[in-house]
Amino acid sequence: MFPRFSDMLNYLFGTNWNLPVQTYGFFLALAFVVGATILYLEMQRKEKEGLLLPQKRKTLKNKPPTTNEIIIGTIAAFIIVWKFGGIITQYADFSKNPQHYLTSGSGNAWLGILAAAAYALYQFYRQNKLKKLKAEYIDEVIHPKDHTWNILIIAVVAALIGSKLFDILDNFGDFLQNPVKSLFSFSGLTFYGGLIVTVITLLWYMKKIKLDWHHVIDAAAPAIMIGYAVGRLGCQFAGDGCWGIENTMPKPEWLAWLPDWLWAFNYPHNVLNEGIPIASCEGDHCRMLANPVFPTPLYESIVSFIWFLVLWLIRKPIKAPVVLFGIYLMMNGIERFLVEKIRVNNRFDFLGMKVTQAEIISTCLFIGGIIIIWYFSRQYKKLKTEISLYLNLLTFCQFMNLENICHSVIEIAREAGQFQMAEINKVRSGDIEVKGLHNFVTYVDKTSEEQIVAALQELIPEAGFVAEEGTSVHKGSRFNWVVDPLDGTTNYIHRIPLFSVSIALMEGDEVVIGVIYEPNLNECFYTWQGAPAYLNGSVIRVSNETSMSRALLATGFPYYDYGRMKGYMDLFMYFAENTSGLRRLGSAAVDLAWTACGRCEGFYEYGLHPWDVAAGALLVANAGGRVTDFKGRNDYIFGGEMLATNKILHTEMLDAVKVHFPEKSKETGINS
Q1: How many helices (H) and strands (E) does the chain have?
Q2: Is 439 helix (H, G, I), strand (E, B) or coil?
Q3: What is the pTM of this model?
């Protein structure tokens, strides 16, 4: 065995290092690091799925430190450098007994004083400098994964307190004999005590920071399991006494393939110095058990690694919150209950049976896991028809996190655009299909839509679709995606670099998210309900032009319904004579995006479909513009005609439309 981590390194590599890091402490720290990494990844995944939401908080910038804060920091600097400076300058004493040194009064006072003085001088310098600056509050976005470090610290402290508390309860006689040693030693850390106190503490912390505990506790389940697996390796390699009962039985024939030490082990050089002396051994840890025992820490570690892999594989298919944690409790209860049968432990009289503390708790955890799975699965089934599989009911009903969803849609639109750019030089005439008069489609349109629809279905599975190429005709009762996978197909097949991906989310008849991505220019326009309009992260506004004669307008022409073209051309002539120009870009989505960012003062067209204009209409409105149909009403998403302007020129343009353009006929044109 390896009491210190350097003992393991020396054994493996033939070195002669003398590091003061204990093997058990190293694996315990590694367990927390590995567990925190898994928790971080799961919190990040759950945020992307909309299950955990980012929060905004106001942070005071340029606030000078107070005198009390400087004093407390100075004291802390002295203590830390005093102790760790002593470790460096008195390393020989420290390496002999690290635990005793850390709890002793030894240290380097001069280094502590120098560090404290340097810290205090720097903080007073900052205080004077920041007093000259204006303190102001800024908005800071806190993502769920950003809480991982705080959760780790709280978990470490709670686990140590809980494990020590339950160890005292399990060995109360030893505690009464020497309370100080029992409290401050690093031995006797009870896992279940740490688990119970940690879970209770983290539930309190989740409530305090207003983070949905249902999904955090599911994220923690595989993290705790892998952390336990790693921590148990520390028990095995250090030989800390968590071994099993004596095992002098011969290894069964059906286990002949196992190494002998996996069946029965003497734990030589164990950290507790238990057993008989080892011949020809000199040093602090020269004992091994007289009779071999079951290496139960290793058994627990192997089983826990297997349980972790199972949890990791099933974490995504399981939709009901807290159910994964219930499964974890059942797994842990089974593993611990069985290993207690061959493990050294104190036994109590309980209902006429001789049982260990861990057997009682593991049984309770198994039963509790069954109850949790039953209860939360039942609750989830009741809510399933009301909410997205990936959004909890409270968040979804009170306020859908549109910003988070919008950023996911941006990534989906960008991926579709990248595919289109990769295929633009591969499309041949034989790949072009004719849907109708002057209306074309390619495999790029269809494949893009399939990719977009599949990704959006994962984002909000209950939402329906209104999509140009008809990949999905299902229409949700509350939420619907409106998708044009390639707006400007005619431009695309002629390799004219102006086309776009347009995606909108509608709640009822209202657009709540709009995203338009132009792959050639790598420009992504996006917005959501109640937010500004953005272009690649920068806020955009409509033009502030007040004169029609200086305005630049965008328009388009329908592919059929030519019975209205005379009036439409009259309107075109009017605007041509009274503005600085008109542009026919070939993509209504781009026309609207450019109106939103002020490149055009207005856009008008008839023969439109919802997928042409839904996203762009919200962009123009949130950028400060105005959008109506040709009668000045709000029937512009499904009404087939639209006027979008910088608001200043809207009335003048609307009047011109009413004068020069006739009433809409029964048929409407189709725009690509």
Answers
A1: 23, 20
A2: strand
A3: 0.52
